[in-house]
Amino acid sequence: MAEDASKSGMERALAFVIAAFTENWGTKIVAFLLALIVFIVTRDEVTRDFTIPLRVIEDPDRVLLTTPPDSVELRLRGPWANVNRIAAVELGAASLDLREVRPGPMELDPAAIVMPPGVVLDHLEYEPVDLRFEAMAERTLTITPVVVGEVDPDHQLAGTRVEPGSWTVRAPSSELDGLEQLRTEAIDIGGATGDVDVRVELEPPPAELTFLGVPSDAMPTVRVVAEVEARTGEIELAVATGEALRAALPELGDDRLPKIERVSVRGPRTVLRSIEGLDQALLPTVEVEEISGAGAPIPVTLRFEWSPEVAAESAAQLSIVPPLIRLRLSPQGLEDD
């Protein structure tokens, strides 16, 4: 009897346990989920660390001499569910506005960091930096053209000019100390026989400058003109004058008339070389003036003109020195020159 009673009690207990796990599944699952939600929502607050970048806003009137950190460390606090679902990219970046801060230890305003809903900033940490500044300055610097190479041997470099001749730059005051001019990139004038007119960029200066009026990542361009002109020279020509004088003054004997006059011709070397080999580059013309009385010397003017052998464009570049010669002739010969 006792054994039957014990066995019956055990069977009832086992039946109860089985029924507890097998009956009313839907109700039990719903209850479990509700309990889990309540657990998550009511779980104690937690903290979590994040690293976010530091964005620096430049001050146009001064330059920062020290280097701030690239990032800052955050510790957020809040319910586990809120904190756990935050991604670092959602936090954005911390800002350091150099237009507003003062020199001294860097201080970031925690209120400037926007927190996601349901969490608070528990701690903000970053590398300590002593902020030091230098004032920005502007200066207008002259531009010097850089010319390399040699022009054609019969020519010479007469001068160079730059348009514009100066440029205004902006930089920390210390960077401008001792900086008086800017230079252009090199311009090659090797073998030039005429003006060289080009546009070139400025050579990067030794200091970090901001060029006003151009994009920050670009160098200004300027016009450079190298003025090249022909070298001048002078040659002496012997001009036969006897025949022209004899035709104008037949009454005078041939032995009394000058046979040759020497004159100089000046102009570009290349043009002078083109007339050196001509048989008769100059032709004389004779002008006889009235004499003052019987037996008086005859005033004569010799003028020199270019012969048809000399091209008109060449003659236009040359000058004759002297352009005329005045003589006083008589039957006895040349009285004065």
TrEMBL record:
Q: Which UniProt keywords apply?
A: Membrane, Transmembrane, Transmembrane helix
Question: Where does the source fall among the domains of life?
Answer: Bacteria
Q: Which InterPro entries match?
A: c-di-AMP_regulator, YbbR
What Pfam family does this protein match (any one)?
Answer: YbbR
Q: Which residues cross the membrane?
A: 12-41
Its recorded name reads YbbR-like protein
